[in-house]
Every structure is written in structure tokens, then in C-alpha cells.
């Protein structure tokens, strides 16, 4: 452990050896998001299998690219903190699915006003157990909604309705903010404003879980 990396020393393989499948998977979900919050990139990388897939509003690709992209955003000042709820875990043989409700908050200055940006979502993870070890094979996000509020009560911030209208309801405020910062966003992500798309996603997840 160095002065710039305060990640914990627990190995993911050790988690698999000391807990039940349910508790191990739940801990890895938290372990991965803790690493993102604090910039502990080695810890974050240890939770993913090589070639794992990540699908988010700002990124589609493998886990290695996701981690390097997260590091780049982190070093550029994008340091949201996650508030995590207990994951719901389903296990079927060597496969598992975990879903955790979560929110992120971060501080930004919007046109001279200090604001708190909150985004609410459900994090979805596909896990695989290989040689007795659980790691993440795929990470997806279901977006719910976002808020942007001034830090100081009584101050105000204005988002032009015409600018916000370009983005999906499920993540419009986050997408608007990311676009202002020069980050490309995908307007076709999973969100509660498209229930048919969500139904297909969960059906596909169930088929994968049970090997169908």
C-alpha cells in the first residue's frame, strides 16, 4: 500500500473461500464500487474477469477500458460517491446475477453556482465462478432519474428546457452535465422510461443465468 493507493489487501479469491456464494457476491459488488469511489484501480480490476463487458451511459467495452476511462475521469475531477443499498443476489450453478439500488452524488459549479448532482440507478452484475472464484463478467446500469440542486439554500440554477429535452428522462440531467463537460453519452441506455426495454433486459438476464 502506497501513499497514493489505500486499497485494502483482501484478495477476491479469499472472499470466495470465507463466505457463502450470496455473501461473497454481495461483497464483491460493494468492493468494486468502493474502489471506484476512492480511485483504488487495482482493487477495482480484481473484481472483473478478463474480457468482462461494461455497458454504461458514457462507456461500452471491456472492463480494462472501463477502469482506465474511470481513472481518466477521476483525475479530471469526476469523483462521484456511491450510496449503496443491499444487493439482491440470485445464484444458479456457476453463474449469478446481482442487482443493487444505488445513488451517486458529486459537487460541481454550474455557471457560478455550486451544486450537488445526484443520480439514482440500479446496478446490475453478471457473475461467473471459475476455479472456485467469483468475479464480474458483465456490468450494466438501469437509470432511474437525477437531480441538480444548489448547495446553498435560496440560490438557483437554470437548465434550459431545450437543452434537457435532448436527453432521456431516466438520466437527462446527468447526460446534460456530461455533455457540457465534453463526455459523449449514449441516449439508448437502459432506463425506467422504457419499460419494454427493461422487460427484455431482465428476460435475457434470466435466460443467461439459467443457461438457456
TrEMBL record:
Coiled coil: none annotated. InterPro entries: NTF2-like_dom_sf, SnoaL-like. Residues 33-138 form the SnoaL-like domain. This is SnoaL-like domain-containing protein. It comes from Subtercola lobariae.
Amino acid at each position: 500500500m502506497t501513499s497514493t493507493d489505500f486499497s485494502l489487501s483482501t484478495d477476491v479469491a479469499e472472499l470466495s473461500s470465507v463466505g457463502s456464494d450470496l455473501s461473497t457476491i454481495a461483497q464483491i459488488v460493494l468492493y468494486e464500487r468502493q474502489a471506484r469511489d476512492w480511485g483504488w484501480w487495482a482493487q477495482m480490476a480484481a473484481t472483473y474477469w478478463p474480457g468482462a463487458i461494461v455497458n454504461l451511459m458514457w462507456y461500452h467495452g471491456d472492463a480494462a477500458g472501463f477502469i482506465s476511462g474511470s481513472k481518466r475521469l477521476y483525475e479530471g475531477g469526476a469523483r462521484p460517491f456511491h450510496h449503496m443499498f443491499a444487493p439482491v443476489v440470485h445464484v444458479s450453478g456457476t453463474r449469478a446475477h446481482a442487482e443493487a439500488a444505488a445513488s451517486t452524488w458529486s459537487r460541481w459549479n454550474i455557471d457560478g453556482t455550486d451544486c450537488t448532482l445526484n443520480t439514482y440507478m440500479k446496478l446490475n452484475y453478471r457473475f461467473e465462478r471459475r476455479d472456485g472464484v467469483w468475479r464480474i463478467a458483465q456490468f450494466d446500469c438501469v437509470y432511474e432519474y437525477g437531480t441538480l440542486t444548489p448547495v446553498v439554500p435560496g440560490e438557483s440554477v437554470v437548465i434550459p428546457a431545450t437543452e434537457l429535452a435532448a436527453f432521456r428522462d431516466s438520466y437527462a440531467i446527468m447526460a446534460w452535465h456530461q455533455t457540457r463537460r465534453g463526455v459523449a453519452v449514449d441516449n439508448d441506455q437502459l432506463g425506467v422510461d422504457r419499460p419494454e426495454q427493461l422487460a427484455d433486459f431482465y428476460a435475457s438476464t434470466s435466460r443467461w443465468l439459467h443457461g438457456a
